Amino acid sequence: MSLEKTVDPQIEAIIKKASRFGFELNHYKTTFLKRRIDVRLRTRGVRDYSEYSELLDSAESGALFKSISINVTEFFRDKEVFSYLTQDLLPKISEKTSTIRIWSAGCATGEEPHSLAILLNEICKKQSKSFKIFATDISSKAVETAKTGIYPSLALKNLPPELFTKYFTAKQDGNHISDEIRSNITFNVADLTTFEIKLLDVIVCRNVFIYYTKETQDMILKKFHSCLKDTGHLVLGMDEGIRAEQTKLFESINPRLRIYRKVIQ
Ligand SMILES: C[S@@+](CC[C@H](N)C(=O)[O-])C[C@H]1O[C@@H](n2cnc3c(N)ncnc32)[C@H](O)[C@@H]1O
C-alpha cells in the first residue's frame, strides 16, 4: 500500500518503527497520525518526534496504535440515518431476501451493530424474515466490550423508551441487551483493510473511513464493492464521502446521509 506523501520524514520513521513491532500505521492520513502522535508526545513528556521515535518500543507502539483506534460511538448515532434505514432501505431489502446480511465494519464497542439488530428485529418479525450481522473492529478491547452487550445509560440516550423496555434489562453493572438481539450478531477482531465477508446486502462503515489515505479508501471501496450483492448498499459516516472517481463503484441514493447503492459493472 502506498503512503500518502508525507512532508515529515520523522513521521515516516515512526511509521516504520511501529511496523517492526507489528503495528501498521501506513494506511492513516498524515494529519490524523500527527495529531495522535502529538498526544502521545505530551503523555510521555517528550519534546519532538525524533525523541519520541527513540522510545518507540513494542509497548509504546501499542499505546500509539490504541490511541489511533478511537472507539467513540453510541446507540443510533445520527438518528436521521437510522430513521432512513428503518423507514426506507431495510424494509425494501427485506422484501427481496429471506436473510438480510449486514457487515458493521469498525463496530467499536458494539452500539452500531446492536442498534441495527434492534431495527432489523422489528422489521423482520413483521415480514417473517431473518437477519445476520457481522460486526468487526481492529481493537480487541472494543470487541470484548461489544460481546458483553452491557451498556451504561449514557450510550443509550438516543434509544426510544419503548425499545429500551423491549430489548434491555437494567442491572447493577449496566443495561443488558437481550439474548434475542445478541444471537443475531457475531463479533470478531478484524482489520477491514485485509478482511472481507461476501454476499452482503449492506455494509455499514461509519466514522472509520475518514482516517485513511485516499489510496487506502480506494482499496477499501473496491473491496466493499466486491463484497456486496449486486443489489447491495453502503452506509458511510455523515462526515465521509465517495470521491468523484469512485462513482463508477457506488452511486449516491441519499447524499446528505451518505447512503450509496452498488453500481453493477
Ligand atoms: C469512531 S469509531 C466508529 C464506530 C461506529 N462505526 C460509529 O460510527 O459509531 C471508529 C472505529 O473504527 C475502528 N477501526 C479503525 N481502523 C480499523 C480497521 N482498519 N479495521 C477495523 N476497525 C477499524 C476503531 O478501532 C474504532 O473502534
Could you explain the architecture of this structure?
The chain is an alpha/beta fold and 265 residues long. The chain folds into two domains: 60 residues, no CATH class; 184 residues, Rossmann fold. The protein is built from ten helices and ten strands. Strands 6-2-1-7-8-10-9 form a seven-stranded mixed β-sheet. A three-stranded antiparallel β-sheet has the order 3-5-4. Helix 2 crosses helix 4 and helix 5 packs across helix 6. The longest helix has 18 residues. The model has no long low-confidence stretch (mean pLDDT 93). The structure holds S-adenosylmethionine. S-adenosylmethionine (SAM) binds next to strand 2.
CATH superfamily of the largest domain: Vaccinia Virus protein VP39
Shape, per Cα inertia axes: globular
As laid out across the biggest beta sheet, the strand order is 6-2-1-7-8-10-9
Order of helices and strands: HHHHHEHEHEHEEHEEHEEE
Cofactors, ions and other ligands in the entry: S-adenosylmethionine
Helix content: 40-55%
Q: Characterize the biggest β-sheet.
A: 7 strands, mixed
Record field, number of beta strands:
10
**pLDDT averaged residue by residue:** 93
| Straight-line N-to-C gap | 25 Å
Tell me which CATH architecture of the largest domain applies here: 3-Layer(aba) Sandwich
Total number of distinct structural domains: 2
What CATH calls the topology of the largest domain is: Rossmann fold
Strand content: 15-25%
- Compute the gyration radius: what is it? 20 Å
Q: What is the overall number of helices?
A: 10
